[in-house]
């Protein structure tokens, strides 16, 4: 009981400020599609065309378009404010997704699916970055921000646990369009609700750092982007390979449970990590979390039982949230306030791009060598993340003077 109070205590009062509950809820609903879109597209196109190759290619086109466009839309948000960017992007994104479904329904030429998928990805907003920017505007430079980022990391894990399961049930039990329709409504409703809450919107600040450049040119942000690209490859490959592993073990229906164990470990650690008041520097926490994550992954390549694998994935997942939380916290400290949304979008898009690469590589390696051997790719990607993160950790030292516009 005492332990529960210790964990929950720091979160008390976090949502008491004016408008806080509103933007947290809107942001959560609005970014549900980030875990639903890819699998929803695959389920729809395969149901109509029976072509996994085409379905995967359209989903990859959407993911890559988002990876390229997210930092650009983040820059627009920093320059013009969240509300002025969210509304037109959300409306066009909804129309593009509706167009994709219509193209599939009418059996239009394949290029129309790719074109619609490209537009869907290009107009998808990184709402998680915008919500974190609102937290930064409220609690920048305080211990509260660490707790807020921990909560957002847990929220992301909840989305990644529930989203794929929800869209799969809707697409298979109701009709192939149902999952994407729910994703469309969630995105549009949550995005417009977030845009309407201007009271908590971060103020638009002129760049007083001189030059008005892009955050990716900041050495520490470039380093973090490389690390999270590798970590995204871990996430993408583990998700795909684990489904194949469950099928190889004759328990395909347990694949969702295994993936939930991976995300569940991250949720548990996120709540605990956010409840702590740390004496170790952000850089120190980041390096340690990376190392623990890589070591925690090692057993999965040597397990041949689904029940043991569930435990191993849960343990490996324990280091995910601490790594993400410290990465976003470092970004908040390294990037000028005038470029904060774009800076966080670079981190999110690096993860997303890594997930696409990991899923592609994991699929190829699984077909060629089997699921257990394919896990070696995830281990190699984690090792790359550790080498890059630890080797370049000097770039993550927080300057004595706060970034412009920050405490």
Tell me what you see in this structure:
GO terms for molecular function: transmembrane transporter activity. InterPro entries: MFS, MFS_dom, MFS_trans_sf. It is a multi-pass membrane protein. It is found in: Cell membrane. This is MFS family permease. The protein has 407 residues and is mostly helical. The chain folds into two domains: 184 residues, Growth Hormone, Chain: A; 178 residues, Up-down Bundle (Growth Hormone, Chain: A). 75% of the residues lie in helices and 0% in strands. The protein is built from 16 helices and no strands. The radius of gyration is 20 Å and the shape is globular. The two termini are 36 Å apart. The relative contact order is 0.15.
CATH class of the largest domain: Mainly Alpha
Question: How much helical structure, as a percent, in the residues?
Answer: over 70%
The CATH homologous superfamily of the largest domain is termed MFS general substrate transporter like domains
Strand and helix order: HHHHHHHHHHHHHHHH
Q: Give the percentage of residues in beta strands.
A: under 5%
Keywords: Membrane, Transmembrane, Transmembrane helix
Pfam families: MFS_1
Subcellular location: Cell membrane
Main location: membrane
């Amino acid at each position: 009981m005492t332990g529960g109070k210790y964990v929950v205590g720091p979160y008390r009062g976090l949502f008491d400020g004016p408008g806080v509950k509103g933007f947290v809820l809107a942001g959560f609903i609005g970014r549900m599609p980030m875990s639903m879109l890819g699998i929803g597209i695959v389920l729809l196109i395969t149901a109509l065309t029976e072509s996994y190759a085409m379905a995967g290619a359209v989903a990859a086109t959407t993911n890559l378009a988002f990876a390229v466009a997210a930092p650009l839309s983040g820059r627009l948000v920093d320059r013009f404010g969240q509300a002025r960017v969210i509304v037109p992007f959300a409306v066009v994104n909804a129309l593009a997704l509706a167009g994709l479904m219509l193209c599939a329904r009418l059996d239009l030429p394949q290029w129309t699916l790719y074109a619609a998928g490209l537009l869907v990805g290009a107009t998808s907003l990184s709402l998680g970055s915008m919500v974190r920017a609102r937290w930064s505007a409220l609690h920048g430079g305080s211990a509260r921000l660490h707790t807020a980022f921990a909560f957002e990391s847990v929220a992301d894990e909840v989305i990644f646990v529930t989203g794929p399961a929800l869209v799969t049930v809707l697409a298979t039990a109701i009709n192939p369009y149902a999952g994407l329709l729910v994703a469309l409504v969630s995105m549009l409703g949550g995005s417009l609700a977030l845009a309407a809450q201007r009271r908590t919107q971060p103020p638009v600040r002129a760049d007083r750092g001189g030059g008005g450049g892009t955050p990716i040119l900041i050495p520490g942000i470039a380093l973090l982007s490389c690390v999270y690209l590798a970590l995204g490859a871990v996430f993408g490959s583990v998700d795909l390979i684990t489904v194949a592993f469950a099928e190889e073990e004759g328990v395909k229906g347990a694949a969702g449970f295994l993936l939930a164990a991976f995300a569940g470990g991250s949720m548990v650690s996120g709540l605990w990590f956010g409840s702590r008041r740390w004496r170790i520097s952000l850089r120190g926490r980041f390096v340690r979390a990376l190392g623990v994550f890589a070591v925690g992954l090692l057993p999965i390549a040597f397990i041949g039982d689904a029940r043991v694998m569930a435990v191993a994935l849960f343990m490996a997942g324990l280091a995910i949230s601490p790594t993400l939380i410290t990465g976003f916290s470092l970004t908040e400290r390294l990037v000028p306030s005038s470029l904060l949304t774009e800076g966080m979008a670079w981190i999110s898009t690096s993860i997303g791009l890594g997930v696409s690469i990991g899923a592609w590589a994991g699929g190829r390696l699984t077909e060629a060598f089997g699921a257990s051997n394919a896990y070696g790719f995830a281990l190699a990607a984690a090792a790359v993340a550790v080498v890059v993160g630890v080797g370049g950790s000097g770039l993550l030292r927080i300057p004595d003077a706060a970034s412009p516009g920050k405490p």
